[in-house]
Amino acid sequence: MSNPLLVNPTAFEANLLSALAAQTSDVDDRKLAFESFARTGLPHRRMEAWKWTDFRTALNKDAPKADSAHLLTPSLFSGIGAFTITLDEQGPHWGDNVPNGMTLRLTDDVPKLMDIVGDHPMANLAAALCGQTLIITVSEDAIIHAPIHLRRAVTGAPSHMRVLISVDRGGSLKLIESIEFDKGGVDFDNLLTELRLGENASFNRTVYCNSGDDGVDMSLLAAELQAEAQFDQYVLLSGGQKARFETCLHFKGEEARAKMMSAALLGNKRHGDLTSHIVHEAAGCITEQQHKTVLKDQAMGVFQGKFLVEREGQKTDANMQANAMLLSDQATINHKPELEIYADDVLCAHGSTSGALDEEAIFYLRQRGLTQVAARSLLVEAFVGEVFDEIDDEDIAALFRQQTLTWLFSEKSDSLGKQSE
Amino acid sequence: MLKIENLHARVEESEILKGLSLTVPAGEVHAIMGPNGSGKSTLSHTIAGRDDYEVTSGGVYLNDTDLLTLDPNERAAAGVFLSFQHPMEIPGVATMNFIRTALNSQRKERGEEEVSAADFLRLIREKAKLVGLSDEKLKRPFNVGFSGGEKKRMEMLQMAIFKPQVCIMDETDSGLDIDALKMVGDVVNAIRDEKRSFLVITHYQRLLDYIKPDRVHVLAGGKIVKSGGPELAVELETSGYDQFIEAA
């Protein structure tokens, strides 16, 4: 097969070409984005940044065979009073009463990708194949009190979506993003979010990603932070057949801050990849990052975190911690923390640990009267609970704690020692 | 009454307890003294039911209950309490929540009603005062950032709250200053009664100035090699353990 856009495509990649041909507007812009994607095709294990998350293998068939009948309804977040924007087969849509200070619109255009996205293959794929792009704008000094819930709910077919968010100077936005499958899974969901955070603006993002046992899911957020901006992100990942959650931050203005707290609870044969790339290119910025993974059964976890401090990033204060707890000897964790520093007056640190539950601690708790299951679950809750303790919104923190319990006591797993009860 | 009969136990491939027999009648305090490596901590962990301590023969009974047939949590509910030599720090576990969960877990196992949050708060505050732990310490994650002495106070706090049938104190005096030693004595004396037994494991006689033992036993080479009254502890303080090590 000969095609100028993709050399030797897999069956799935050939379908992507068909999808591109079906697009009716802005074909040239889409083709440009697709050409960028086509230089590599779907990312695969021979690419360093993707060596543990091989989408080409996961999607190497006509279409993923996910059973998409298990979308959780209603959403876990239905009771917290959020304004909901749904991303489904109809594209992005929402109801009345958009909060004051915020505008929502859709465009058929293909806006130019932010420079910091670079040649990210999945971002280019989303830009090439998305239908309408959703644009969310928060005006200068506007504080949006009610959270905005961006619900990813495509069930029928592979989906490529793109969202552009701009929070202008002094503005504030709280965003909840979810993909919620209990079993089965999303077919293939690829979301690109681009964020521009103005001076002294704040953005608080809570994410719950459960792509289902069979789901394939990609989420990339690329953000630019101007001076004194504040970026907070709290994430709970439950993984999928192949799931990657990626964040790319660039500090463009001085004394901006980012706090990134995340946990991954992975069971069965699920895969969960949390990747981040934080670029400090302005002075006096602060990043605090902590990621915790708990694995059972035959799950695989991935953490790739990188701090790049450019010469302009003097007085950077950046700390990255990744910790993993393995409840099964068949589970796998891969950590790759990286520091690349070109400034000479910075405070940067990273730490990485992995291990099993502490048998001494389990004995201690059992000696005090807790059953084997109760002791082990208490230690797991405590391990990931340190991440949830950082969440300001008590309702969301409680929801994440409840999801942890649900996951711990889910079927199939004997990782808590149920057999010995 | 705690009764240990000809107990043999090993850790991995090493036999540590080699036919240990001991009876601690209800209401009595017995001290176990002995040199390093004689099996004192193995004895305490074996009674408490640690998985990797394998009993190869013998028996351990609390009143009529065969402890060796029970899981560690069931032994706790039956009334066995072990004060650890090196208490754990458990980040992320809220202290009061954990102790209340543990207390109610024991009560549930015994078929008793759970203690309400309000009653528990009154109870823990009363006992915290006895052991000298502040409210601020109770609000921290379990033992996190505590000094060695504070961790021992936390052990005594739990012992005072659970009110077990048999209290095994594994070198509770190690690392304690004079005030903390006195606190340990105060707790033991406060809950000492005709139904409760204490097995106090120690290297030194000094703790026994605050907790008057009814009997003192010397453990060497995995078994009791000598027993006597409180005067035996004083004698050991001057004569040391060499004679027992050589005999073992």
Describe the structure.
The complex is a heterodimer of chains A (421) and B (248). Chain A has 421 residues and is an alpha/beta fold. Chain A has one domain. Chain A has helices at residues 11-22, 27-38, 55-58, 121-129, 359-367, 372-388, 394-408, and strands at residues 83-88, 91-94, 102-107, 133-138, 148-152, 159-167, 172-180, 189-197, 202-225, 230-251, 257-266, 271-280, 286-295, 300-309, 317-326, 332-341, 347-355. Chain A has a 17-stranded mixed β-sheet that branches. In chain A, helix 6 packs antiparallel against helix 7 (394-408). The longest helix of chain A is centred in the last third of the chain and has 17 residues, at 372-388. Chain A starts with 10 loop residues before the first helix and ends in a 13-residue tail after the last helix. Chain B has one domain: 3-Layer(aba) Sandwich (Rossmann fold). The model of chain B has no long low-confidence stretch (mean pLDDT 93). Helices cover 38% and strands 29% of the residues of chain B. Chain B is globular and about 55 Å long. In chain B, helix 2 (72-78) packs across helix 3 (95-109), helix 4 (117-131) packs across helix 6 (148-162) and helix 6 (148-162) packs parallel to helix 7 (178-191). Chain B has 248 residues and is of the alpha/beta class. Chain B starts with a strand and ends with a helix. Chain B has a 6-stranded mixed β-sheet, sandwiched between helices. A 4-stranded antiparallel β-sheet of chain B has the order 2-1-4-5. Chain A binds chain B through residues 358-361, 363-372, 374-375, 378-379, 381-383, 385-386, 389, and chain B through 45, 48-52, 71-73, 75-77, 80-82, 84, 87-88, 90-93, 98-99, 101-103, 105-106, 109, 141, 158, 162.
